[in-house]
Amino acid sequence: MILKTWSQGIIASHFVLLIFMIGFFFITHKLKNRIDSNTTMFVLQYIAVVVIMATGIAIVTIDQLVTANITPFLLICIISGTVFLIRPLISLTIFSTSYVAYYHLIALTITNEQVLLSNRVNGITAIGIGFLLSIILWRYNYTNITQKWIIESQQKQLEQMAYYDPLTDLPNRRFFDKLIKQECSSMQRQGHESVILILDIDNFKIINDTYGHPAGDNILRQLADLLKNNVRKSDTVSRFGGEEFVIFMPKTSLEEGYYFAEELRNLIMEKRFTIGSVTLRITSSFGVSLLGDIKNQSSQDYYSLADKALYLAKRCGKNRVEKA
């Protein structure tokens, strides 16, 4: 009778665990490629630990009908501590609760007081090993994740310093040159036109001389914001240095670039730039060039074409747009 009860209990316990693990594997497989699955996976992990610990306690309790061995409980503790990444406080709660359940349940199938006491003491050891392994795993992964986050953060900072202007947070010339090389490949494949647009603040030196360089920097930041907020999503605004800005407009004709530059010129002319309590109006000159056939050219060559158009705009009275 005891052997029959034991065999039925063991089979049922293992069957329940098997069904749960199949379901757990199926759900995690479905969720692993979903971006929004982190929270669900987090919860499922804790559910899995609780179910596995509960099943282990059930198995070792049933085992006491025929043996005093608690190896299944020890194995379950080790597996839970080494397979699942659990926060220390939650780990302490799970293992402590599991021991309380283990402590009381094995008394249902153990009749010998000495064996019961021995298994309860050995259970403390098993729980302690599982909890310790869980803490070690958490600490190891926490350290790795922290170091990875620091490295990624430093890489982003280095990239920001290498490719972005610190004053305006706009891409710099190095970024722009790299972008043009990529666009050259795209134009060769697809055969479309793109435009480079250069603008320069008129008489910017007078602003610096009159109000100081910090005031000039403030004007540059305000202008950068205006440009970013008025270009297309596909366009790229960059600062080459000083009061010179460059806009890259992919899949754009020369005429489209010219009219867009006129719109920007009017926006800049109409905007009120503030320096503390002082309000200023500024004007700007634009040079627009078409990338055209880029087979044997470099980004500097195209910048030179637009720069010549800008020089012409300056020479012809400023506050105007010229195209090359």
TrEMBL record:
Q: Which GO terms describe its cellular component?
A: plasma membrane
Q: Which GO terms describe its molecular function?
A: diguanylate cyclase activity
Ordered alphabetically, the record's keywords are: Membrane, Transmembrane, Transmembrane helix
User: Ranges for the GGDEF domain?
Assistant: 192-324
> Superkingdom of the source?
Bacteria
Name the lineage.
Bacteria, Bacillati, Bacillota, Clostridia, Eubacteriales
Recorded hits in SMART domains, A to Z, give: GGDEF
Q: What Pfam families does this protein's entry cite?
A: GGDEF
TM regions (residue ranges): 6-27, 39-60, 66-85, 92-111, 123-140
Q: Name one GO biological process term.
A: cell adhesion involved in single-species biofilm formation
- For this entry, the protein name equals Diguanylate cyclase (GGDEF) domain-containing protein
Q: InterPro entries, from UniProt?
A: Diguanylate_Cyclase, GGDEF_dom, Nucleotide_cyclase, Rev_trsase/Diguanyl_cyclase
State the organism named in the record.
Desulforamulus aeronauticus DSM 10349
* SUPFAM superfamilies membership: Nucleotide cyclase (SSF55073)
